[in-house]
Amino acid sequence: MYARRGRVTTPNGSFETPAFMPVATAAAMKGLTPAQIRGTGSECILNNAFHLLLRPGAERVKALGGVHKFMRWSGPILTDSGGFQAFSMAQINRINEDGVTFQSFIDGSTIHLGPESSMRVQQDLGADIVMAFDDCPPAGESVAEPERLKRTLDAKDRTLRWLGRCVAAHCRDDQALLGIVQGGTELALRTASVQETCAFDLAGYAIGGVAVGEGTDAIERVVRHTAPLLPVDRPRYLMGVGYPRDIVMAVESGVDMFDCVLPTRNGRNGMAFTREGAIRLRNAIHADDAAPIEADCDCEACGGGFSRAYLRHLFLAGEMLGPTLVSIHNIRLFQRLLLDIRRAIDDDAWLQFRDRWPCVNQVQGRTPDPTGVLDD
Amino acid sequence: MYARRGRVTTPNGSFETPAFMPVATAAAMKGLTPAQIRGTGSECILNNAFHLLLRPGAERVKALGGVHKFMRWSGPILTDSGGFQAFSMAQINRINEDGVTFQSFIDGSTIHLGPESSMRVQQDLGADIVMAFDDCPPAGESVAEPERLKRTLDAKDRTLRWLGRCVAAHCRDDQALLGIVQGGTELALRTASVQETCAFDLAGYAIGGVAVGEGTDAIERVVRHTAPLLPVDRPRYLMGVGYPRDIVMAVESGVDMFDCVLPTRNGRNGMAFTREGAIRLRNAIHADDAAPIEADCDCEACGGGFSRAYLRHLFLAGEMLGPTLVSIHNIRLFQRLLLDIRRAIDDDAWLQFRDRWPCVNQVQGRTPDPTGVLDD
User: Fold this and answer.
1) Distances from the Cα of A192 to the Cα of A148, A184, A244, A257, B265, angstroms
2) Same domain for B98 and B243?
3) Which residue, among A26, A9, A29, A28, has the nearest Cα to A17 in the 3D structure?
4) CA-wise closest residue to A302 among A338, A328, A275, A271
5) What is the CA radius of gyration of chain A?
């Protein structure tokens, strides 16, 4: 049991850890205003450099005062480096030691992204926490074993070389650069990657290359192995994970920071998370249900008295208010979970905590694979 | 100059007139929460009986406590009778003296709507102000003159006979029933319809059958003729109109209440209304513009500091937040217009008012014809 409490301080405010960072991919969290995001209890949010590079362009955001001012979010922001999306989502022309060259999905233009350009884009965007540009191969179940192993090893080594170039290109003192550990599901490679990555004295370290299609058990094996190896005095960030169950497992392994599109992506499809598990609001069982999603929830949807019947109606009628309200509820559910996690650590009452959250004892589905999904 | 001030009192609160009622067709104003609607300064909103009858069903809404509770709006609500939509949007099987029989656009089921059933639906929904079921023919430019005239006359007469049946079926003392004047663009028929309709002692009277495709000039001719004929001691409601220019013209004619989908429909397509006229936020001219839609606007979008550049980005990226923020701005713009109208009447300063609103001296486009549009 490595669970731990902390506080990350940035030029735009601090946040308590373990922390969940909801995702505002293109500098917008779907239908939520910054005030509504704030109302969910979220302190730090995530933007994606890949999407903002393509549209509206990082230099434009810089000229408009940076991403905080652009989207009117006054708290901490973390930007992903764009590496993951460039590798998994883009029409790739070429991958080599300098990075990746691909076609913009917006206008077809040719774009290069590598360690230096990713750092420059993130410097232009101006987030508080920036990520090193990494080589993140998909889990690749269809690839034969020797080939998969070689690809995993190459990605780990290339990520390390790119980290050196990111450190050299990193020039804004007001931005914290985090390195990313790779190594796929090979625990020996993970160990090596931790040692190599942590040879760089960085503000924090992330576990990348998880939730790329390898399944819940493999995620758990990698996280339980890798997280405790990371320096105890720096924030540890598990990228792109996950369901409440995965988050709790990772907290137990000593992870401090999380991001995931689940609350918003599932929310706008009518799936609401609850302490007991997920429910599908489109189902007929909710048609006459005057109860809120959760009776004891203080979010704008539940606290505002919106019934399951009304929310179902919104989804069936295609009303935008449905996705907005359920996304708010879901993010708040995740923040309530993290709040209770932090309380349980403070109070040394972990088993009681687990009893209060039946959903963390369920396997509810795969952590979503962002590959190919452009809208989150 | 017949402009006048008033106050309409209902069981769920009162509102100042002249008043603009934004449209929450299916008991939802697109992406806006009730708190956001309230934040625009809107006091009374409109729901549509036709849409709610089809989905989720009026009896269901009744069982859930009525439409106020259903959508969590604590202020006054007006429901349209459904007649207009049944005639203009539905696949009609039969129109006769008993009403209209049509196929549901949701599940294809056969539905009958007539004076008695419309009143029952509106009683189930439980709005504060309900509308008589009327026969509202389209402007019908493609129909030959003698035929069009006969259809207009028939609709006027049928609307009157149906009004008698609505009055007989009206049984909730807490709901105010408003009659509707028809007569198309024939001023003599309008005069007759006013006399016949106002023979019924009702809480208020509406001018229907406008903004059905007849054009701005014809709307003005009908309104300037008809409004002053209505009883001076009852609220006058011009249905489905319109642009700021149309509203100001109608206020000058003595109209008290307005509803229109323009602020939300145009808002979610990236058109923002301003005091100077409408702007299209998708245009490239806004790409680097750090200014809000309007510098002196106090809405959540402008007051919140969201730039035109950011709003443009949201629309290009397909982010729901764009429609939400611009709809909020547009509704607030309409409410600021109405606030200034009321102030100008109070202060007897009408010409100065017109100078403050350049947009009311422009013909900005047709008042939208709701025919065939299912999403508003």
Assistant:
1) 17, 12, 29, 22, 57
2) yes
3) A9
4) A328
5) 20
Q: Do B56 and A318 touch (CB under 8 A)?
A: no
Could you tell me the residue range of the domain that residue B351 belongs to? 271-361
Average pLDDT estimate for A281-310: 98
Are residue B321 and residue B342 in the same domain, yes or no? yes
Q: Residue B222 is part of a domain; what is its CATH number?
A: 3.20.20.105
Query: If you ran DSSP here, which 8-state letter would residue A212 be given?
Result: S
Do B244 and B327 share a structural domain? no
Note whether ipTM > 0.90 here. yes
- Ramachandran quadrant class, A278 (left: phi over 0; alpha: psi -120 to 50; beta: rest): beta
Q: Is B309 on the interface with A (CB under 8 A)?
A: yes
Count the domains in chain A.
2
Contacts of A317 in chain B (CB under 8 A): 26, 28, 51, 55
Which residue, of A260, A283, A313, is where some domain finishes?
A260
Residue of A nearest to B324 (CA): A31
Residue B106 lies in a domain: yes
Closest CA to B72 of B24, B2, B130: B24
Residue A240 sits in the same domain as residue A328: no
Residues in B touching A60 (Cβ below 8 Å): 287-288, 309
CB A254 within 8 A of CB A4: yes
Q: Retrieve residue A173's tokens.
A: 């003192």
Cβ distance B36 to B300 under 8 Å?
yes
Catalytic residue among A128, A135, A256, A259: A259
Which amino acid type is present at position B300? E
Nearest CA in chain B to A35: B304
Q: Residue A80 catalytic?
A: yes
Cβ neighbours for A9, distance < 8 A, ≥ 6 positions apart: none
| Tens digits of residue pLDDT in B251-306 | 999 999 999 999 999 999 999 999 999 999 999 999 999 999 999 999 999 999 99
Contact A297, A286 (CB under 8 A): no
Judge if B287 and B247 occupy the same domain.
Answer: no
Q: Sort strands B277-280 and B271-274 into parallel, antiparallel or unpaired.
A: antiparallel
Tokens of B284: 């490239």
Which amino acid is located at B158 in the chain?
R
If you search the block for the tokens 């402009």, which residue do you land on?
A: B3
The predicted-structure confidence for A172-192, as pLDDT tens digits, reads as follows: 999 999 999 999 999 999 999
Residue A89: burial class (beta carbons within 10 Å; 0-12, 13-18, 19+): middle
In this structure, the answer to whether residues B302 and B173 fall within a common structural domain is: no
Q: Is residue A371 part of a domain?
A: no
Give A324's pLDDT tier (boundaries 50, 70, 90). very high
Residue B36 token pair: 């956001």
Q: Any alpha helices (H) in B227-320, and if so which ranges?
A: 244-252, 262-267, 300-303, 308-316
B47 and B119 assigned to the same domain: yes
Do B285 and B342 reside in the same domain of the chain? yes
Domain termination site, one of A197, A227, A260: A260
Evaluate whether residue A140 is within a structural domain: yes
Question: Which amino acid is residue A55, in one-letter code?
Answer: R
Are A290 and B65 in contact (CB < 8 Å)?
yes
Two tokens at A311? 């929310």
